[in-house]
UniProtKB/TrEMBL annotation:
Sequence intervals crossing the membrane: 12-35, 56-73, 85-106, 127-147, 180-200, 221-245, 251-275
Protein name in the entry: Uncharacterized protein
Domain of life: Eukaryota
Keywords from the named record: Membrane, Transmembrane, Transmembrane helix
């Protein structure tokens, strides 16, 4: 069976949209790294703000993209390959829930052996709850996608491929079954995470960052950043290989406003993080007011008095 070269859906996963996601992922990793490496309070405050803001912005991108995916299914205007690549961009990093929790079980949930539990900037309880709800919704959608949508709508005369650490046919029963099992496990993990605060007794917790020396905490946070970088690299490679393997056309140029906006936002997110870090350090050194962009629409001045 031959590979059919199809026109890709640039509005769902064009170059600008993919780069926008990649740059926001990278910006979060850079912000975490600068936060761990910073030694002055002003840097830490600036980076904490950027980590929280970047996390929220990326989540808004994911939610908007998920709504677009659902609407495309409803109108029938997207192919199975279009939906698959869009889902991989939005939710592919959740695949790493499974090895993460396998490791936690193997290590007896010991935080000193688990770098993924030492977040540089921990999200709020409300953010975590909403994020887990999104995981459950996306996992349920993808179970339906692999169990019903792919067998029904995959092109019968064209070969289509997906990424699962190798090149696999989307028509393969094994590949579809593996994705269904993975999404079911992800859903179970997310539901467990939602229920856990209600199951644990009030005040019950594991050893946290405050109970270990600072140098050990930083070492674990650095390892966590390396894990995030590995996940980021794997996801970029997987998405780009899926695009390449399916011979999609028209998605390697930025030729629309819908692609340009995510790309520009991603670039500005990365530039802003470096800018805030450099100027916060300079302010700490000389004690003078340093201007910084507090929003896309205003210029503010941060004034810090030296003792």
């Amino acid at each position: 069976m031959s590979l059919c070269r199809l026109d890709g859906n640039a509005d769902m996963y064009g170059l600008g949209i993919r780069l926008g996601f990649y740059l926001q992922w990278l910006a979060r990793i850079v912000a975490d790294l600068l936060l761990v490496c910073s030694t002055c309070d002003c840097n830490q405050k600036a980076m904490l703000t950027e980590v929280e803001g970047g996390r929220t912005a990326l989540q808004c991108f994911v939610v908007a993209s998920f709504i677009a995916i659902i609407s495309q299914v409803d109108t029938g205007s997207a192919t199975v390959v279009d939906l698959y690549i869009s889902l991989l961009i939005c939710f592919g990093d959740y695949f790493f829930f499974i090895p993460t929790y396998i490791w936690r079980l193997a290590s007896g949930f010991n935080p000193l052996l688990d770098p993924t539990r030492w977040l540089v900037a921990a999200p709020s309880a409300s953010y975590s709850f909403l994020d887990q709800l999104l995981v459950v919704a996306s996992a349920a959608f993808q179970i339906w996608f692999w169990a019903w949508k792919v067998p029904k709508d995959v092109p019968p005369d064209c070969e289509t491929f997906g990424f699962l650490f190798s090149k696999l046919s989307m028509k393969s029963l094994g590949f579809r079954t593996a994705n269904i099992v993975i999404q079911a496990l992800i859903m179970i993990i997310a539901l467990t995470a939602i229920a856990m605060p209600y199951v644990l007794k009030r005040g019950e917790s594991t050893d946290g960052p405050g109970k270990v020396p600072r140098h050990k905490r930083r070492r674990m946070q650095t390892l966590g950043i390396l894990v995030s970088a590995c996940i980021f690299s794997t996801m970029v490679v997987g998405i780009e290989l899926a695009v390449f393997w399916n011979g999609l056309r028209g998605i390697y140029i930025i030729n629309s406003t819908g692609q340009l906006i995510p790309f520009v936002i991603g670039v500005l997110a990365l530039v802003r993080i470096v800018y805030k870090y450099i100027w916060a350090s300079k302010e700490e050194a000389d004690g003078r007011a340093i201007p910084f962009v507090s929003s896309p629409f205003a210029i503010s001045t941060l004034t810090r008095k030296r003792p």
